[in-house]
Amino acid sequence: MSTKKSLIVIAFIWLGWFLVLYAFQYLVTERLILKRPDYAVSWTEKETTIIANRGKIYLLEPFLNRQVAWDSEYYLGIAVGGYDDPEAGTVVNPATGLPVIKNYSFFPLYPYAMKAFMFPLQVFGLNPIATGSLAGVVVALLGTLAGLFALYDLGRDYLDESGRLRTIFYILIFPTGFFLAQVYTEGLFIGLAFWSLALARRKQWLWASLLAALAAWTRAHGAALVLPLLVACLAALDWKKPLLKQLNWKWFAQMLCAFLPIGAYLLWRYSALGQGWAELQSFYFGRGLMSLESSISSWKSAYDYARGPLIGGQGIVYFCLEVFTILLALVAALWLLRRAPGVALFSLGVIVLSVFSGSAQSMARYMLVAPATYLFLGRLGRSQAFDRAWTVFSLLLMGMGAMLFSFDMWVG
Hints:
- The chain has helices spanning 3-31, 44-47, 57-60, 72-81, 109-121, 128-154, 161-172, 186-201, 205-216, 226-235, 249-258, 260-269, 272-285, 292-306, 314-336, 341-355, 363-366, 372-380, 384-406, and strands at residues 90-92, 99-101.
- With 412 residues, it is an all-alpha fold.
- A two-stranded antiparallel sheet has the order 1-2.
- The longest helix is centred in the first third of the chain and has 29 residues, at 3-31.
- The relative contact order is 0.13.
- The model has no long low-confidence stretch (mean pLDDT 93).
């Protein structure tokens, strides 16, 4: 099959996937009524009651409501009302006694992209929140499609045609793959990050670095793209020849570009937006960069809660899925380390930044953006028995997660 035909096939897989997913989210919420509250983690009991979203205007708009939950509130709040819009919620900093708007805890590129798409989408005559929701899923879905094309390209050196198409299918049906079609950042992020990796593989350094910088303004994981870009710089050298003759201005320019994602992250971090993020993370969301002590404490607390006497065992199921996805991503990254060190190191960066972010939750969603996982699964999928078993396993888990998300239950 030619590359053009493969890309067309991928586009139709993507189209069918999100149409079926949206239909499922509609049907399951019409057919079922879930018992509340959710006991997945220690705090969800109070946040998943029937009145938990009362007064949260960005979560109550009926249009595309099944694709909006949890952090979607803040992305919509920024896109519709700006970072200083208090409608998405404020909290009081106990250290200063001053209110802080929770929007500041989220990176800017995704909600700003939503805002840009809202302008042409006004033609449909929807209210601002509905228009923002539509813009959010459009940006997420287009980013996902771009990410699928890049993932297909990344597998060229060690997967055949059918194997590369399997990787596309596996990311879409991953247990948390439904997030790629919701008002969340994952879709846009994989579009930017995966193409940065693909372009680095093609030695298009400038474009790879620019996309990496944009990824760093979408999620903190984007900063980890400095690793594959630096690997590409070192791989450009022939270590059997004199190095001084190879260190020309082009190589130094490439090295400088490799640091663009770190530069972009630091530029945001020390801006007014990033300082608001740091303030909120320190006392409210409990996350930070390589927060080792708080991470260990959080993982211990999560384990203790999961093995406690819970109603129905929701906590242990949630915890086991978190740990399983981390271990899967880790094994995949180690398997890929010699075959594609740049992709493997980025995936390891995603794992480390997530596990030691200070809070032991949302890991299954964070692992969604580690590309090594799907390349590894694509190789295992050469076995028809594994392919069928993994497909059933992953699809059932994704269906459960999509259902819970649609009912505003906690899935990360």
